[in-house]
Amino acid sequence: MTSVKKIGLFTSGSDSPGMNAAIRAVVRTAIFYEIEIAGIRRGFEGMINGDIYTMDTKSVSNIIQRGGTMLKTGRSEQFKTAEGRNLAYQQLKKNGINALIALGGNGTLKGVKEFGDEYPDIAIIGVPCTIDNDLRGSDFTIGYDTAINTVIEAVDKIRETAESHDRLFIVEVMGRDSGMIALRTGMGVGAEAIMVPETKSDINALFDRLERGRKDKTSKIVMVAEGDEPGGAFEIGKAIMKRFPHYDTRVSILGHIQRGGKPTCMDRVLASQLGVAAVEALKNGHSGEMVGLIHNDIAFTPFGQSVKHHHEVNAEYIRIVEMLSL
Ligand code: F6P
Predict the structure, then answer these.
(1) Quick check: is 132 catalytic?
(2) Ligand 1 center–CA 309 separation, angstroms
């Protein structure tokens, strides 16, 4: 086992609130153990271009409370090629980096898995940062708690105007392949129905549900994850308007506000725990794994397993929503 001399730290893919808190935790833990730490800007793209700089305790001052990522992020087409990955490897060697900590979601973990298989002399640990909460190996991902709180704040406001106008709203939340945001926030806002990509959505079942609802109910909220197969909120909205022309229907897409904002305390704490664990994992010889928290314990999951399996939709959530939103 080669000892970790210098860690390269980067954020990649979509940003998520709490990434900065994780950066702070990684940098300060590395310094605590007297391991050199370098920031790589703009994810894989910065690795290829050698956009790498030494970080110290002060470089991460006053960031724990900020959304976004001070290291910037992006998606790299070049890193998907063997040539691009080789350029990245050369840059790491040139900078004396022999370990990486990657903060990101699905795409990031796929990228480091491929890279780690090709260049096993670079030890790599992944930290789950995505608002989607769709990675196997951690009960929650960093950013999810902030995103769902942003959503319920927004939808509570939508409910007030819906109630005043006797309207039905179809609210679309993020989650191209994952309904985790829609599922939890749907219960949190008392939605009348939830539609997620993990289950086959039946538009007729939605119609039945809306029809069966209490007749004197004046506002209705249907929460839809953007990846839901009938085609997202606008398509569902069109179908509802056609089937129920007497409903005053509106569509609202919450979009990227879900990705920004001050991280909640839960996200800051999770980011701090996982950031520390990532550095300690490298120190203890771990590589090729994502660090997560399962039932409040630090857990390691090989990259291949964490990206292949989505969290399953908890049918109990749907049952509760349907039972309570009479
Ligand atoms: O993966 C996080 C996520 O927010 C998804 O829920 C969403 O589909 C995607 O990123 C949007 O990405 P972009 O910022 O490129 O529009």
Answers:
(1) yes
(2) 18
